[in-house]
Amino acid sequence: MEVASEGKAPRTERGRRTLRAILDAAAAEFGEKGFHEGSISGITRRAGVALGSFYTYFDSKDAVFRALVRDMSAQVRDHVAPAIRAAPDGIAAEQAGLSHFIDFVRAHKEIYRIIDEAEFVDAESFRAHYATTAERIEARLRAAAARGEVRADVGAAHAWAIMGMNVFLGLRFGVWEEDRPAEAIAAEMADFLRHGLAPR
Amino acid sequence: MEVASEGKAPRTERGRRTLRAILDAAAAEFGEKGFHEGSISGITRRAGVALGSFYTYFDSKDAVFRALVRDMSAQVRDHVAPAIRAAPDGIAAEQAGLSHFIDFVRAHKEIYRIIDEAEFVDAESFRAHYATTAERIEARLRAAAARGEVRADVGAAHAWAIMGMNVFLGLRFGVWEEDRPAEAIAAEMADFLRHGLAPR
């Protein structure tokens, strides 16, 4: 994925590791302080890199924040994708996706603050994150419908509904409290989906 | 509802009208500019009131923003409540709630920016808004379960799932695009809920 500022992509493995360290430090910095209070010096201190290294990859605080939103969006997708692909049917795929999403959120609680703040700092990335997530869910639902696993008329509203369920279940059971296993929540929701979207 | 700063509640009908005008102006100001760029002078200009009138009711920009979050939360609740109460059963109540919610959002598109920015400006009101909304949905689901209209074991996860569906359907079909009637979305989701939560 292209995350560094234009013309600043790392060319070596060592450069890629430094870029990764800067992005992880940016997640901690913006997750804890928010965009306005967060600073480039706070990021380089957390990453243990010199200020010059930051500017090797990014032009500005805005640029690293935009990169971080796209990076977190990609990290979530990559974390849930293998479990979704391995699932035996469409509903099991959504179940695995939700379970792994809650796990990811518990390990990266800052993701909500970062994606949510993007609405104000980088509206385009915010919109892209949700639009592409909904498109992926809709494509999976349509494939499941073609296999006869769910009703034939699944569409955008179902996809947005499932995305909204997942986002708020992640907030309540991943960020706010961890009072139930992720698998239990995902199983309960899969039952809800399996009956709610059953072929007619 | 107590929205003015402590000791500053209006005592006359005229005072209540001025307070209402200030809150509506604050919704427009913060909805358009965000909290950081929005200003008290922008609010009083939009409301057509003197700066002194603002301080008659609010201590600060923070105070009027906090009041606005609680006011918008209450406005949504009051807008959907009569239709929910008039519905013939629990699923029809959720259907009516979603349909009226999307209508409200279309008429008050700034609500998303304001509630979402509260996560950063006034975390307590943000949390209270979603916690109380989920509690209301869960109470309705449990009442419907007691009447045998939905499965007996409905709980917090179902309530958070429904809230998340509604929030994201409102964003997609209320704020971003108005490409389908609110009633059609709500009917599709009610069918989903009716089968998904059917008594076993």
UniProtKB/TrEMBL annotation, chains A, B:
DNA-binding region(s) in UniProt: 39-58
Keyword Transferase: no
GO molecular function: DNA-binding transcription factor activity; transcription cis-regulatory region binding
Signal peptide limits: none
Keywords: DNA-binding, Transcription, Transcription regulation
UniProt KW tRNA processing keyword: no
Residue span, HTH tetR-type domain: 16-76
Pfam family, one: TetR_N
PANTHER family from the UniProt entry: HTH-TYPE TRANSCRIPTIONAL REGULATOR BETI (PTHR30055:SF234), HTH-TYPE TRANSCRIPTIONAL REGULATOR RUTR (PTHR30055)
Name of the molecule in the record: TetR family transcriptional regulator
The species this protein was found in: Sphingomonas spermidinifaciens
Source taxonomy: Bacteria, Pseudomonadati, Pseudomonadota, Alphaproteobacteria, Sphingomonadales
